[in-house]
Design goal:
This protein is an alpha+beta fold and 197 residues long. It has helices at 17-25, 86-95, 111-119, 129-137, 165-178, 188-194; strands at residues 31-36, 43-58, 77-80, 103-107, 125-128, 141-158. The strands form 2 sheets. The protein has a 4-stranded antiparallel beta sheet, sandwiched between helices. A two-stranded parallel sheet has the order 3-4. The longest helix is centred in the last third of the chain and has 14 residues, at 165-178. Residues 186-197 have low confidence and may be disordered.
Length: 197
């Protein structure tokens, strides 16, 4: 995007989903990459990908938990996921048929931090499938059964700014990068002409 649109001012920030949603509403930011199942109120979204998350446990816990039910994980520590987040939606989906309230300890709002905490034996975690497989191959953790749920990676922006030129440029670039259709987005070539200095 920097190479194709030098006139576009880009400010990349990392934050929790709750902050990103509030910042979108207040127009502090123009758009956000989010993990979510449902479209945040007042936004339009561009679906980039679907993602699967799994429950994982520390490898140091050994085979003791093989074949156990979710209910049997109730008394052990869990790594807390942030409220108002896509991760919270996923965890609620995984736990919907059980009657447990996890004993939540440390909160992790970053996937590599979650991996580190699970590997250190802190507790049960929720990890993206591809990262969980990497960590399992490294001997850091084990999957807890086949407990998993799917969510989406989206680009969200204020619905009132759907016609905004900068938003259209970002949608066009994301569509090119992810090889998807972006309804109403300006093509990269056209956007380059429109935003040239």
């Amino acid at each position: 995007m920097v190479q194709h649109h030098p006139a576009l001012r880009i400010d990349v920030q990392v934050g929790r989903t709750s902050w990103l949603l509030d910042a979108l509403r207040s127009a502090e930011i123009d758009g956000a990459l989010l993990v979510c199942r449902t479209r945040p109120p007042g936004t339009r979204i561009l679906l980039l990908d679907e993602m699967t998350f799994r429950l994982v446990i520390p490898a140091s816990w050994g085979p003791e938990y093989d074949g156990r039910s979710l209910d049997q994980l109730a008394p052990v520590p869990w790594i807390r996921v942030a409220p108002r987040s896509g991760h919270r939606e996923i965890l609620q989906d995984i736990l919907k048929d059980s009657h447990i309230r996890p004993v939540e300890t440390v909160e992790a709002d970053h996937e590599q931090l979650m991996r580190t905490l699970v590997a250190a034996g802190v507790g049960v975690g929720l990890m993206r499938d591809d990262l969980a497989h990497q960590a399992q191959a490294a001997g850091e953790l084990n999957f807890f059964g086949d407990h998993k749920a799917t969510t989406r990676l989206v680009f969200a922006y204020d619905e009132g700014r759907a016609g905004d030129q900068a938003i259209q440029v970002v949608l066009g670039m994301l569509a090119d990068i992810w090889n998807i259709e972006a309804p109403g987005a300006v093509s990269s070539a056209a956007a380059s002409r429109e935003l040239s200095p």
